[in-house]
């Protein structure tokens, strides 16, 4: 008896019989089967042995150690269990479309290995948090209610006229309720749903590692998550992270130095403000903005000036450059340092500014000096125009072989986000009339007493006790210390966000819970799909999800979503409206 698993290599030994006219004989049946046909094989099983070294000896192997690497079956009978369609062509290099996701998985070993890795990571995280840190895994409902947390929801109609559930954007409110219920530490690998614009790192339904801790603050949560991440990398990737705490940047520092709230720290190229040193006429020519902030970043790719000129021209002619060329605040300026030209090619900067730039940036032949203007306003959102251009140029340089592909993992915490941000057209926010929305969600606490004082006088200056974990330019997740006082929570909703009475009533359950002696608490959620994609070096979370949605939110295999029938609409008391 030999134990086999799905990864075992099995060799079937069969021989031609004299009765070659009988198609039912095992060998003849074997010859007629199409590749990839599932079968039942009966025969005599024997282990096959391969020599692996000389260290240990035994009489059975003639003085060499051995181990069973596969099995051999002497064929006695074979029965096909299913058939394959004649038009299904499976050959080396065959690329299957998303409509045949089952064949993508079957014939792409990297997909199968990614799904196995995902399974191991989920099991490790559960065991680590529960066994090492005393978390309790608790399932929260998927049929929730509509509440304005910040993202668009998916509604689930019921047969009760006008009544609907909402799929949860996250288990946020339930886990805060658990903290008030006397559960000290909660965790869940949770399914979440958001009806938002899709990108490579977003899906309408996704998985997150969700956790919350009572009588805790952000520092407690960050330490716990750091410990888990180090252990995960060590166990699954065999990469030991330093025992030192992950680096930290405030939101303003990250935006000013890298033009992004999720910077990739594996490469430098810091951004600097330089409008103070530029001639007034140059600032006025950069773009249509009045009194703009002007920023610069340097790239050192090659001292071959001709090659740099070719690189810049090719990039500016590429589709990747179009968002920067069409920027309504002005196009970027890209200068190539050339010591043979006046002021090294920085004539338009004027003598004084060119000299300062040369000293500050330590310019050499072939360096690219990239200039970009932006509005003179506090940072908001996730990136600046120059931050985006910095990433695009770096990616193009790596693709052209001018820079090496960044290696390793560089973790950092981003802290001190603004508690509120101006409303925008893409996110519904909380629907208040104040013209601002919670940057994260309306349950995040102000960071300090001074920030509480600013709530009514200047809410856009209030810092949140919020923290994001970033690695290699990817936001793995975010968390915060929560508002645990009902009066403060209602004040934020009513007086700062200016939500309507009707919308505030949607949170009546939470306000009642907070008023019943809820302890201070903090938590975090890590995007599990992103986490696995980063660990495996995948470009898209679709490469680590068994059945992902397309860029339009469609499951191409099962063809969902589907148009509702008249019968379904009638059942749920719905009717379609044009437009």
Quick take:
By secondary structure, the chain is α+β, with helices and mostly antiparallel strands. It is 30% helix and 20% strand.
Structure description:
One of its GO terms (biological process) is mitochondrial aspartyl-tRNA aminoacylation. One of its GO terms (molecular function) is ATP binding. Residues 115-561 form the Aminoacyl-transfer RNA synthetases class-II family profile domain. By secondary structure, the protein is of the alpha+beta class. It folds into three domains: 10-84, no CATH class; 111-250 and 410-549 and 556-571, BirA Bifunctional Protein, domain 2 (2-Layer Sandwich), CATH 3.30.930.10; 267-399, Gyrase A, domain 2 (2-Layer Sandwich). The protein has 17 helices and 19 strands. A hairpin with a 6-residue loop joins β5 (155-157) and β6. α3 (109-133) packs across α5 (218-237) and α13 (486-496) packs antiparallel against α15 (508-514). The longest helix has 25 residues, at 109-133.
Which segments are poorly predicted (pLDDT under 50) over 5 or more consecutive residues? 54-66
- What level of helicity do the residues show? 25-40%
Shape: globular
Report mean pLDDT, rounded to a whole number.
Answer: 90
How many angstroms separate the termini? 67 Å
CATH H-level superfamily of the largest domain: Bira Bifunctional Protein, Domain 2
Structure summary, number of beta strands: 19
Strand content: 15-25%
CATH C-level name of the largest domain: Alpha Beta
Main sheet, how many strands, which sense, barrel?
Answer: 8 strands, mixed
- List the strand order in the largest sheet: 4-7-8-19-18-17-14-9
- Tell me the radius of gyration: 30 Å
């Amino acid at each position: 008896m030999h134990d086999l698993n799905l990864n075992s290599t099995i060799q079937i030994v069969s021989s031609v019989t004299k009765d070659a006219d009988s198609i039912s004989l095992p060998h003849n049946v074997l010859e007629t089967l199409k590749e990839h046909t599932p079968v039942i094989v009966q025969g005599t099983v024997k282990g096959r042995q391969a020599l692996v070294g000389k260290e240990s000896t035994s009489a059975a192997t003639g003085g060499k150690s051995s181990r069973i690497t596969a099995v051999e079956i002497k064929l006695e009978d074979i029965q096909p269990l299913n058939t394959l369609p004649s038009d299904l062509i499976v050959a080396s290099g065959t690329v299957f479309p998303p409509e045949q996701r089952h064949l993508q998985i079957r014939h792409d070993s990297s997909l199968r290995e990614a799904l196995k890795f995902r399974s191991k990571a989920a099991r490790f995280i559960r065991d680590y948090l529960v066994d090492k840190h005393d978390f309790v895994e608790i399932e929260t409902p998927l049929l929730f209610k509509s509440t304005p947390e910040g993202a668009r929801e998916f509604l689930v109609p019921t047969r009760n006229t006008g009544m609907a559930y909402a799929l949860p954007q996250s288990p946020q409110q339930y886990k805060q309720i658990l903290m008030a219920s006397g559960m000290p530490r909660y965790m869940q690998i949770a399914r979440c749903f958001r009806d938002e614009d899709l990108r490579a790192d977003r899906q309408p339904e996704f998985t997150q590692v969700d956790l919350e801790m009572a009588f805790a603050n952000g520092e407690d949560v960050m330490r716990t998550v750091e410990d888990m991440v180090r252990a995960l990398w060590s166990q699954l990737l065999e990469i030991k992270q330093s025992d030192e705490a992950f680096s930290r940047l405030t939101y303003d520092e990250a935006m000013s130095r890298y033009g992004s709230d999720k910077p990739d720290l594996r490469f430098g190229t810091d951004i600097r403000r330089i409008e103070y040193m530029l001639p007034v006429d140059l600032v006025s020519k950069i773009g249509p903005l009045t009194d703009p902030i002007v920023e610069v970043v340097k790239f050192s790719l090659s001292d071959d000036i001709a090659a740099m000129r070719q690189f810049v021209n090719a990039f500016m002619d590429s589709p990747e450059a179009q968002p920067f060329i069409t920027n309504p605040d002005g196009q970027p300026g890209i200068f190539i340092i050339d010591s043979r030209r006046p002021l090294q090619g920085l004539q338009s900067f004027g003598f004084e500014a060119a000299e300062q730039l040369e000293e500050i940036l330590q310019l050499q032949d072939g360096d690219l000096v990239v200039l970009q203007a932006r509005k003179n306003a506090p940072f908001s959102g996730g990136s600046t125009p120059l931050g985006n251009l910095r990433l695009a140029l770096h990616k193009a340089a790596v693709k052209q072989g001018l820079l090496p592909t960044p290696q390793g993992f560089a973790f950092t915490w981003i802290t001190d986000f603004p508690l509120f941000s101006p409303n925008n057209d893409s996110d519904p926010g909380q629907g208040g009339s104040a013209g601002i929305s919670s940057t994260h969600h309306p349950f995040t606490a102000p960071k300090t007493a001074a920030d509480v004082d600013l709530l009514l006088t200047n809410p856009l200056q209030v810092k949140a006790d919020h923290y994001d974990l970033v690695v290699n330019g990817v936001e793995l997740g975010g968390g915060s210390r929560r508002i645990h006082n009902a009066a403060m929570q209602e004040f934020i909703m009513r007086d700062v966000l200016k939500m309507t009475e009707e919308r505030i009533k949607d949170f009546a359950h939470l306000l009642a819970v907070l008023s019943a002696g809820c302890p201070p608490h903090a938590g975090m959620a890590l995007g599990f799909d992103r986490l696995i994609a980063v660990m495996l070096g995948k470009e898209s979370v679709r490469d680590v999800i068994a059945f992902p949605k397309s860029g339009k939110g469609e499951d191409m295999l099962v063809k969902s979503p589907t148009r509702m029938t008249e019968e379904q609409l009638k059942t749920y008391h719905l009717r379609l409206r044009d437009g």
